[in-house]
Backbone:
């Protein structure tokens, strides 16, 4: 079987691998029921969905002809490193500094991954996304997430 689009093939392969890994990893947790889903319910469903979408992309890569085999380009190291660092920073900062300080820092850092950085746009995006995150997760869903920095009394 000939790969007709290298880019779609490797994208589909990574989608399938990631989806299956998340679905398999979620089996360690309780599924619950449809009425009261457990911690495995959402990641399992999302993992299966991602694997199915990856399968469709793989099928397309093997059946639909593309110009020059649609080769894979070079790895974009800067966005890969910046976004990975932003994710790690989010995990480290959130429990200590809270949502209100963590999200703007992570959003501004993430915008450095792109070719064009505009501080005004990054700050506006961080303000809107922080407000929306607070409205959805804290006010709407009532999740227990630290909003402000933890101040220890000694």
Residues:
């Amino acid at each position: 079987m000939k790969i007709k689009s290298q880019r779609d093939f490797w994208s589909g392969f990574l989608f399938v691998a990631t989806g299956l890994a998340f679905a398999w990893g979620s089996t360690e947790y309780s599924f619950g029921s449809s009425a009261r889903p457990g911690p495995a319910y959402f990641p399992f469903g999302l993992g299966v969905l991602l694997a199915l979408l990856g399968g469709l992309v793989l099928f397309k890569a093997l059946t639909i002809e593309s110009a020059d085999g649609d080769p894979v380009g070079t790895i974009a190291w800067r966005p890969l490193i910046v976004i990975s660092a932003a994710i790690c920073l989010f995990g480290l900062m959130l429990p200590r500094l809270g949502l209100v300080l963590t999200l703007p820092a992570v959003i501004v850092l993430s915008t450095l991954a792109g070719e064009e950085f505009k501080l005004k746009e990054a700050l506006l995006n961080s303000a809107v996304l922080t407000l929306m995150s607070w409205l959805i997760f804290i006010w709407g869903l009532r999740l227990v997430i630290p909003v402000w920095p933890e101040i220890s009394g000694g």
Observations:
- Residues 6-69 form one domain.
- The first helix runs from residue 6 to 26.
